[in-house]
């Protein structure tokens, strides 16, 4: 795993996601990196507030006031920045923050760099309403990003399970990413090996070079249910997968995030 210079926290300000902030700062402290907060104000929320449906679902009966909504988004961004500053100062981590509004996908991709680790915070409520916040599945994988952490739980995971699959163009990058998160290298790294025998030989060669202990789980193919059963049985607290894993295709990433009770690190 290449040296990570920055941990970039991309957080929808509507989410009030203190766990993502805590996870990003602790990751930066562990990796000796700085943390960059990108707080996202989605203009579609304001457009949504002007639609008739906003009046229908408003708990106040008078509709959602776009000006009030915009003021609250600005207040939430300021609060998120204050929380980031407090967490970073507590752990002695260098930090910066910026509010992004407009074409969020393009803005995020402009920030993407190979040597950065992204932490994506997602769901939330605004003014007591469940609203269409920026979808993690759209923003989760900026084109230039190699490591993207989804569904953070307040602290980095310490004993991940990694999935090696035939479609991975660089299986060792997956192993290195998972190894970087191992808190105790004297414990075995849980590795699910799918399909080809060549992956088993790749794993063995990496294990010898790293001097790592490995607990392999060999499967010819895997469904979402099988993967979750293996994850639960091994007692791991984070999952590392390649972006090309077939299970993630279509709505697969959404289904995995909905059922996985742990953070997910996606590696290109």
Number of strands: 12
User: Could you say what the CATH architecture of the largest domain is?
Assistant: 3-Layer(aba) Sandwich
CATH level 4 superfamily of the largest domain: HUPs
- Strand order of the main beta sheet, please? 3-2-1-4-7-12-11-8-9-10
What is the H/E string? EHEHHHEHEEEHEEHEHEHEHE
Task: Name the average pLDDT.
Answer: 80
The number of helical runs is: 10
Radius of gyration: 20 Å
Fraction of residues in helix: 40-55%
For the terminal residues, how far apart are their CA atoms?
11 Å
Q: How many domain modules?
A: 2
Large-scale geometry: globular
Task: Indicate the low-confidence ranges by residue numbers.
Answer: 53-61, 123-140
CATH class assignment of the largest domain: Alpha Beta
Protein name: UspA domain-containing protein
Organism: Meiothermus ruber
Task: Record the SSE blueprint.
Blueprint: E1 6-12, H1 18-31, E2 34-41, H2 43-49, H3 52-57, H4 66-91, E3 95-101, H5 104-111, E4 116-121, E5 125-126, E6 129-130, H6 136-139, E7 147-150, E8 160-164, H7 171-180, E9 189-194, H8 197-210, E10 214-219, H9 224-234, E11 238-242, H10 252-259, E12 264-267
Parallel strand pairs: 1-2, 1-4, 2-3, 4-7, 8-9, 8-11, 9-10, 11-12
Antiparallel strand pairs: 5-6, 7-12
Helix pairs in contact: 1-4, 2-4
